[in-house]
Specification:
GO terms for molecular function: ATP binding. InterPro entries: AAA+_ATPase, ABC_transporter-like_ATP-bd, ABC_transporter-like_CS, ABC_transpr_LolD-like, MacB-like_ATP-bd, P-loop_NTPase. Pfam families: ABC_tran. By secondary structure, the chain is α/β, with parallel strands linked by helices. The protein has 7 helices and 10 strands. The strands form 2 sheets. Strands 6-7-8-3-9-10 form a 6-stranded mixed beta sheet, sandwiched between helices. The protein has a 4-stranded antiparallel beta sheet with strand order 2-1-4-5, covered by helices on one side. Bound molecules: adenosine-5'-diphosphate and magnesium ion. Adenosine-5'-diphosphate (ADP) binds next to strand 2 and helix 1. Magnesium ion binds near residues 48, 49 and 170.
Length: about 230
């Protein structure tokens, strides 16, 4: 049997609890097994980003627990959480979030530098990663010299740098044209299949939703449905 890699138990998030409370996520349970390829869908404002951020330890739940690969991240100290994130979870965002002054190679290498990986080993790994996302000819380009699709592929390479078991992606194709979106999704599906990386990605994009094997729908901060499908 596959093992549970993400276990969000009764998770809630209320913003501005003391003024005008916003119940962004309410009593949500999500169990995801290793190797799943899951889309998180729902209208704008339904809590997708908030839920992803809590699962990745970027935001603290108001209530409930998040267990990632057996570690209850909601009880970790700030330093331990940063370290856990760095080694276990890759993030991809809608707006790419690359460092503008750094080249593709440096944006990816930066993560390995944080992990104190030796320069020679770092160089080799960065080239492998950029090769994996088809950007071996763009290693010295800065984000401004790359298309949206290419920037997002750098972001995926960066997310992979720490060899995470999980990648959380918040609307990764929202700023991409159809061709780049399809290309990005192929890369994600390949990583899922060949490297057994678990993917949880929020999206509005019907073409992306079709490729998921499981679709979790949020409405008003609650799970409205959770269904398996055969990807097309
Ligand atoms: P989605 O990603 O599905 O569009 P979000 O998780 O971004 O939804 O937002 C869920 C709800 O929480 C929305 O009502 C949003 O306005 C609110 N919200 C999100 N982040 C914050 C914040 N930092 N402070 C206050 N309210 C927030
Ligand atoms: Mg969002």
């Amino acid at each position: 049997m596959a093992k549970t890699i993400i276990d969000a138990h009764n998770v809630s998030k209320t913003f501005n609890p003391k003024t005008i409370p916003v119940h962004a996520v309410q009593n949500v349970h999500v169990h995801i097994e290793e190797g799943e390829f899951v889309a998180l869908v729902g209208p704008s404002g339904s809590g997708k980003s908030t839920l992803l951020n809590m699962m990745g330890g970027l935001d603290e739940p108001t209530a409930g627990t998040v267990i990632i690969d057996g570690v209850e991240i909601t009880t970790l100290s700030e330093n331990k959480l940063i370290d856990f994130r760095l080694h276990n979870i890759g993030f991809v965002f809608q707006s790419f979030n690359l460092i503008p002054v750094l080249t593709a190679k440096e944006n990816v290498g930066f993560v390995l530098q944080l992990q104190n990986i030796h320069k020679d080993k770092r160089e080799k790994r960065v080239l492998e990663l950029l090769n994996e996302v088809g950007l071996e000819d763009k290693i010295n380009s800065k984000p401004s010299e790359l298309s949206g699709g290419q920037q997002q592929r750098v972001a995926v390479a960066r997310a992979l740098a720490s060899k995470p078991k999980i990648i959380l992606a918040d609307e990764p194709t929202a700023n991409l044209d159809s061709k780049s979106a399809a290309n990005l999704l192929d890369i994600m599906a390949k990583l899922n299949k060949e490297e057994k990386i678990t993917f949880l990605f929020s999206t509005h994009d019907q073409r992306v939703i079709k490729k998921a094997r499981r679709i979790i729908t949020l409405v008003d901060g609650k799970i409205d449905s959770d269904v398996q499908q055969i990807p097309s």
